[in-house]
From TrEMBL:
This is Putative DNA double-strand break repair rad50 ATPase. Residues 200-318 form a coiled coil. Keywords: Coiled coil, Membrane, Transmembrane, Transmembrane helix. The lineage of its organism: Bacteria, Bacillati, Bacillota, Clostridia, Eubacteriales. The chain crosses the membrane at residues 371-395, 407-429. InterPro entries: P-loop_NTPase, YhaN_AAA. Residues 1-65 form the YhaN AAA domain. It comes from the Bacteria. Pfam families: AAA_27 (PF13514). The keyword Transmembrane helix applies. It comes from Acetobacterium woodii (strain ATCC 29683 / DSM 1030 / JCM 2381 / KCTC 1655 / WB1).
């Protein structure tokens, strides 16, 4: 990926400015306050906007206000970049409430937003979403701000997750941090027993309160049953006394009473009305006991059943979605397996090892040479012949012993030299024959033909892709296992809800059957008639009280013999009144006892439902903990597998710059430790000098950025402020090497960098910022 053009229409101090960048090394020079950091931030803003990450609603960062132009009428720009030969153009409006982003095919001018990943929070497509690049990863890897590590961690959680997924080219997104966050939120929503506001805490608190209420209810209703028995007995006594009073009432006494009553007409009407009411009460007595309190309890049970049904529907949808996701994974696994053409990874590896072994023998045959042996043998032969010649010519003096020794040594060296030459020539001819036969590499040709390749490089590329494909298949397998666990959890939850709902429906049916109705609507109709019955009774009792008042007035009249008419007509009226008062007192006591207290059977059923809810929460917590443990194991395994390569990469870069530190260790939280070259112990990067910390920070960014995403440009703002000359040269050489693979953009206010680039012979493209002119 290469950034080609920056069109800054209105951003910070810039207005209608254009900056053209080139592939390779770009050096952007500007004095203090020339706008270097503004340009660097403009690039970030064009790709990601100025939105705070991980928010449930769109929230702008502090940088939005910092670079807002003073006139505030325009806050926009455009950026052209190239990926794999295709040019894209980003046009973004940064203004709040008007913010938008359009992504164009820069060749056709067509809007292609729908080809990029969509973020539902900011309601925009993500230009770098297909590269797995977020603003957090960008600012912690490829975008190196000026001395930023003094206030930031070397790598955040998201950088760690991206590094774990760096070989995941399957297109399947496994957001470890997002999964863990959602699982923890799920656990927090469920809560613990000690948290009164959590789901499980509220359920436990409500259950405990209901258990106490159940004790009170059982005591109260036991007393109500006792009072009701007394009321029933008193009612029987009243009926017997009323029968006796009817018998004692004589027609003559009644006539006399009516003569004494001035309100006879009213009494007559009341009696007629009470007779009518009495008949109605007897007819509607079957509706006694139907009340709205019980109706509300039935409706609550029905509502609980409906809520469980809604939860079951939701779980079914989640299971369907997970099944579809699992199906997609299986389909992608099948596509990956087809790439292997029906061959196992072990078979491919075995063929590759044979191929490389043959190639290695050829190389060894090329490397091994007998030139040294031949030269030494030639020298030995010449020395021997020289000694023989000196002895024969008598140039060694008159000593016969010396001549004989020289002759013997000369002859011996000559023989050894000739033997060495013969051996060297023979070995050389033999190795040349081996090399000639190996160059034919028939077994290599057989392997290439087996895989339908013509060149060894094609087979090596196939093997590397097969290794990546095998890793991707293993990652898909892990994700599939996670989805299967999720499906099992959903199935378990569905079964629990199903059993709860079935129990609730059975309970509702039993209650309706006990009340002699088929449904709640029918019970509701009977409640209305039961209410009417109570109203009739109230009216009937009101009439009785009025009659009693009238009759007390009549008690003032006397018969001819001086006896009270009322006492003669109703000799047991005082006993009736006493019994009525006792019944009223008991009924009042019963009402007081049951006021605000539910029926024990209803409380027990509610406690049973809460126990089931608490059990369901426990199952969900255990499931979340199981998945979290699996994710933790995956992260640890991924780190153990890939950390050695990253340690080696960063260590090589750090050693190249410092010529001192080369051993580094990156732990599973992406914390960096440096090996002390003197004692061999580990030191945290923060314990080093400020300049060395800069270099460790540079090495980390250089290494992790190239591993996570080798396509993005590497952008640096004044990274060498605290470097010495030698280490600055080494860092510039590394950036030069990197610029051959990916674009490098270096911001600086010091001409020293340019002088060093020239001295080192490093090609670069220079851009000058100053007084808002390029």
């Amino acid at each position: 990926m290469k950034i080609k053009t920056l069109n800054i229409r209105a951003f910070g101090k810039f207005k209608d400015q254009t900056i053209d960048l080139k592939p390779g090394f770009n050096l952007i020079y500007g004095s203090n306050e020339a706008g270097k950091t503004t340009v660097q931030t403009f690039i970030q803003g064009m790709f990601f906007g100025f939105y705070k990450p991980y928010r449930k609603k769109k929230t702008f960062s502090d940088e939005y206000q910092k670079y807002l132009p003073w006139d505030q009428f325009d806050y926009s720009g455009a950026l052209v970049y190239e990926v794999d030969g295709q040019e894209f153009r980003l046009e973004r409006n940064f203004l709040r409430a008007k913010d938008n982003l359009f992504i164009y095919d820069n060749t056709t001018g067509k809007v292609i937003n729908d080809q990029f990943k969509y973020d539902g929070v900011i309601r925009q497509n993500l230009p770098l979403g297909h590269l797995g690049m977020t603003s957090v990863i960008y600012n912690n890897t490829v975008n190196m701000r000026q001395i930023s590590h003094d206030s930031e961690s070397f790598a955040q959680d998201e950088v760690r997750d991206s590094y774990i997924e760096m070989q995941n080219s399957s297109g399947i997104e496994i957001n470890f941090k997002g999964l863990v966050r959602r699982l923890e939120e799920k656990k927090n929503t469920i809560g613990r027993s000690g948290q009164s506001k959590s789901r499980i805490g509220a359920a436990i608190r409500e259950r405990d309160e209901l258990q106490e209420l159940l004790k009170e209810s059982e005591i109260a209703y036991a007393k109500v049953a006792e009072n009701q028995e007394i009321i029933t007995q008193n009612q029987k006594k009243m009926k017997r006394i009323e029968a006796e009073n009817d018998y004692l009432t004589q027609e003559s006494v009644v006539k006399r009473k009516k003569e004494l009553l001035q309100s006879y007409e009213k009494i007559n009407k009341l009696e007629k009305e009470n007779n009518r009411l009495s008949k109605l009460i007897k007819e509607d007595e079957i509706y006694k006991g139907y009340n709205y309190k019980t109706l509300e309890g039935l409706k609550a049970i029905q509502n609980q059943s409906e809520r469980l049904s809604d939860q079951m529907d939701y779980i079914e949808k989640e299971m369907s979605s997970s099944s579809e996701h699992l199906k997609t994974i299986r389909q992608k696994e099948e596509v990956k397996r087809r790439f292997l053409a029906g061959k196992t990874m072990n078979a491919i590896t075995e063929d590759y090892d044979i191929f490389k072994k043959e190639q290695t023998e050829v190389e060894e045959a090329k490397k091994n040479s007998n030139v040294a042996i031949n030269i030494v043998s030639m020298l030995v032969t010449l020395i021997g012949m020289g000694l023989v010649g000196l002895a024969n010519l008598g140039l060694l003096g008159t000593s016969t012993g010396m001549e004989n020794l020289s002759l013997t040594v000369g002859v011996t060296l000559t023989i050894l030299g000739v033997i060495g030459l013969s051996f060297g020539v023979s070995a050389t001819i033999k190795k040349r024959n081996i090399l000639k036969s190996k160059q034919l590499i028939p077994i290599q040709e057989e392997i290439l033909e087996k895989y339908h390749f013509k060149k060894g490089a094609e087979f090596e590329n196939f093997y590397k892709k097969a290794v990546r494909t095998q890793k991707e298949l293993e990652q898909m397998k892990n994700e599939g296992e996670l989805i299967i666990i999720q499906l099992s959890r959903h199935q378990a939850g569905f079964e629990v809800l199903f059993e709860q709902r079935r129990g609730i429906m059975r309970e509702l049916e039993n209650k309706l059957a006990s009340y002699g109705v088929n449904n709640i609507a029918e019970y509701s109709e009977r409640c209305e008639k039961g209410q009417q019955l109570e109203e009739l009774k109230i009216r009937f009792n009101g009439n009785l009280q009025l009659l009693e008042s009238l009759l007390e007035t009549v008690n003032g009249g006397k018969t001819e013999n001086g006896q009270s008419v009322w006492h003669k007509a109703s000799p047991k009226s005082e006993e009736l009144l006493s019994l009525g008062k006792e019944i009223a007192r008991l009924e009042g006591e019963n009402n007081a006892l049951t006021d605000g207290i539910g029926l024990p059977v209803e409380i027990r059923e509610t406690i049973k439902s809460l126990d089931a809810q608490i059990h369901s929460c426990d199952i969900e917590i255990k499931a979340c903990n199981a998945v979290l443990q699996i994710l933790e194991n995956i992260q640890k395994e991924s780190h153990l597998e890939s950390a050695p390569e990253l340690n080696k990469n960063i260590g090589h870069i750090l050693e190249t710059i410092t010529h001192r530190y080369k051993g580094v260790k990156v732990d599973e939280n992406m914390k960096l430790k440096v090996v002390n070259p003197q004692g061999g112990d580990f030191k945290d990067a923060e314990q080093l000098s400020a300049g060395t910390m800069d270099q460790v920070h540079f090495a980390f960014r250089y290494g992790i950025g190239d591993v996570i995403n080798h396509e993005m440009p590497f952008i640096l703002d004044e990274p060498f402020v605290r470097y010495d000359n030698e280490r600055k040269n080494q860092a510039l050489k590394l950036l030069s090497e990197l610029s051959n693979k990916r674009q490098v953009i270096l911001f600086t206010c010091d001409a020293d960098e340019e002088q060093r680039l020239k001295a080192l012979g490093i090609p670069y493209h220079k851009i000058v910022l100053g007084d808002c002119e390029i």
